[in-house]
Structures are given as structure tokens and as C-alpha cells.
Amino acid sequence: VDPEPQPGPEADPVPQPGLEADTDTEPSTGDETVPISPRSAEEIGHLIRTANFDRHRGRMREAETSYLQALRLQPRNARALAGLTRVAMSRRDGTQAVRWAERLARARPRGANNHVLLGDAYLLAGNRNAAREAWRHALELEPGHANAQRRLRGG
To answer: Comparing C-alpha atoms, which of 81, 74, 69, 76 is closest to residue 41?
Structure first.
């Protein structure tokens, strides 16, 4: 039996199309306004990498636990919020996905991808009008954003 690969930056596959956020590959801790110690930043980074590793392998419960631990250390961490949004979406839980995605959009309002993810969460929750509004907002932030344009065209 081969041992399970260990989480790390090289273990994280490319995010799934349509489920990207500005936060999946950034070195940022996601909340530059709150100073944190280098040790905390390192711990948060490890938690996020572990959570992404688990999420990409379908281990949603484990991923959720790690994302929540990261949020305890830094409540506005955009990478953890995006991850929790994706976990909720994979569970087809639109209400929870919207909750996390709205927090993400408030934490990082200038991230066009965050608004695309918010729109995806709204659509999952059955609110097509709010989804279209979020995707349009993404285009305002980043004109020509391919994923926002594709969603608004319905494709």
C-alpha cells in the first residue's frame, strides 16, 4: 500500500473551473489589515494547504475542519472563506455557500473572482438575479473577466 501523499503547495491541483477565487494560490493570509505573527502566518498557511489537499481529494469534513481552524486564527482569511464556500457548494448546500461567499466578498471586495464565486453560490441557492448581479460586479472590477462573461451569457 502506497502511503498517502502529504499536503503541500505541490500537491494542490489547479482549482476547478468556476470555483476559483482570488485566494486559492495567493501567498497572502487573506487579511492584511490584521497583523499576525510569522508563526501564526505559517500555521494558517499550513492549515489552508492541508484543507485544499483534503478538499481536492473529496475529504470535505477534514477540509472544513482545517478551514475553520484557520478562521479561528484569522477570522477574515479569504483563502479559508473561499475554501468553505467550495466545501458547501460540493455538498450542494446553497444557503451555507452563500453565507461563506458573502463573508469572502466583504473580506476581499476588490477580488473579481470572489464575486464570481459569490454568484455561483447564489445560483446554487436558487437566486439567479443575485447571481447575475454578483457576476456583473465582477466585470465592473475586472472588465473582460472570462468566467463572469461566460456565466452572464449562460454558458
So the answer is: 74
Is residue 17 within 8 A of residue 10, CB to CB? The reply is no
Three cell numbers written together for 31: 487579511
Taking only Cα atoms into account, the Rg of the chain, rounded to an integer number of angstroms, comes to 15
- Give CA–CA dist 112/74, Å, rounded: 22
Q: How far is CA 64 from CA 59, 74, 88, 94, 126, in A?
A: 9, 15, 9, 16, 23
Residue 115's nearest CA partner among 133, 149, 138 is 138
- By three-state DSSP, how is residue 136 classified? helix
> Which residue, among 22, 19, 7, 149, has the nearest Cα to 78 in the 3D structure?
22
Q: What is the residue type of 96?
A: Q
Q: Please name the amino acid found at residue 10.
A: E
| Residues 27-42: tens digit of each pLDDT | 343 444 567 888 899 9
Amino acid 19: pLDDT: 38
| pLDDT of residue 64 exceeding 70 | yes
| pLDDT surpasses 60 at 16 | no
* Contact criterion met (CB below 8 Å) for 78 and 30: yes
Q: Distance (Å, rounded) from C-alpha 128 to C-alpha 89?
A: 15
